[in-house]
Design a protein that fits this description.
With 346 residues, the chain is an alpha/beta fold. It has two domains: 200 residues, Alpha-Beta Complex (inorganic pyrophosphatase (n-terminal core)); 137 residues, Diaminopimelate Epimerase, Chain A, domain 1 (Roll), CATH 3.10.310. Helices cover 38% and strands 17% of the residues. The relative contact order is 0.11.
Length: 346
């Protein structure tokens, strides 16, 4: 993330706004990943350090993915129902592309003021104050510069949270959004006490047995299309039951499909278990609600566009959407047609 004069002014303006806040509620998108959770923790600790009354909130009360349960600070977060005084707190959203992705419409509507910090290019700028840098590797990278502008002491715990966000959303530093600045920020965070080996192990090398079994079923149910350039994996409700796995174990599975030689676009289709339906969606009788995660091998293959056509969003190389009222085969057919067209345009 380069910092031209206009960006410096935007950072100064946001830092000034945050320093004036006395009571805040900090949240991120539903089904949070490492970037969302890392920013949630870092923002909370930063605001607390300057004397603000800060509360972390997650609308989704399902378990946090095991990759991130080592974050001790999450024990302070409120899940599900927001705090009773939420309407009197400024709402700070991190890594959230739209108000709907917060997962609680009433919370958003009642907020007296919204500060929106994000790196999704399709962010709807729903805040009174918006800092959206679509080219950044992660929201954590943006937040690093925000905290520096605020004069916050980036402690080891804050640094670990930010580093995790950068690591995860940069695709382990492999996406084209991982710039020289990204590596410079990561290096500075390491000098502040981040044990990068420990974090990598926690996130990528501590796989529950149930997730390994789920991966086996995913690869068994894999479809290869578009002359080997598209890999689609399907996980239905019975797969979760057979593997003894919950919905939170799907994090990162799609990357196993993209790693296959010759694959340029990977898609993971999985049924949302009962009780894990995102706010604003519903499951039709006989038609499970499917979540679709998309990954591409380059920015030229824009999966954000494919997801956006179905009401989803994300980034050019990593996006997703919810398929409502469609069978698994209908979802597969749409992906094959859309990816085929995208590959022809590349």
């Amino acid at each position: 993330m380069n910092q031209p004069t206009s960006m410096d002014k935007a950072l100064d303006s946001l830092a000034d706004a945050l320093r004036q806040e006395q009571r805040v509620l900090i949240t991120c998108h539903v089904k949070p990943d490492g970037d969302a959770l890392g920013c949630l923790i870092a923002m909370h600790q930063a605001m607390s350090s300057i004397g603000a009354d800060s509360v972390m909130y997650l609308a989704d009360d399902s378990p946090i993915a095991p990759e991130y349960q080592w974050f001790e600070a999450l024990s302070e977060a409120i899940f599900g129902a927001p705090p009773e005084d939420h309407a009197s707190r400024t709402l700070i959203t991190v890594d959230c592309g739209s108000a709907e992705r917060v997962g609680n419409e009433n919370l958003v509507a009642a907020a007296p003021r919204i500060i929106n910090i994000d790196h999704h290019g399709d962010n709807t700028r729903f805040g009174a104050v918006n800092l959206v840098v679509g080219g950044a590797s992660s929201t954590a990278e943006i937040l690093y510069f925000v905290l520096r502008k605020m004069g916050v002491d980036i402690t080891t715990e804050i640094a670990e949270a930010l580093y995790t966000g950068i690591l995860v959303d940069s695709g382990r530093f492999q996406y084209s959004s991982a710039s020289a600045t990204t590596f410079q920020v990561a290096a500075d965070l390491i000098t502040r006490g981040v044990d990068h080996t420990k974090i990598f192990h926690n996130v990528y090398e501590t796989v529950p047995l149930a997730k390994a079994r789920l991966l086996c079923r995913l690869l068994t149910n894999m479809t290869i299309a578009c002359d080997g350039r598209l890999a689609i994996g399907l996980l239905d409700s019975e797969d979760f039951e057979a593997a003894g796995a919950g919905n939170g174990l799907t994090e990162g599975l799609v990357d196993n499909l993209r790693a296959i030689e010759g694959v340029r676009v990977a898609a993971l289709i999985y049924a949302r278990p009962v009780g894990a339906i995102e706010p604003g969606h519903h499951e039709e009788p006989g038609k499970p609600l499917y979540r679709v995660s998309l990954r591409s091998s380059s920015e030229q293959l824009n999966v954000q566009k494919i997801a956006g056509a179905k009401g989803g969003g994300g980034h050019r190389q990593a996006a997703g959407y919810t398929a409502e009222g469609e069978t698994a085969q209908q979802v597969i057919d749409y992906l094959v047609e859309s990816v085929s067209r995208t590959l022809e345009e590349d």
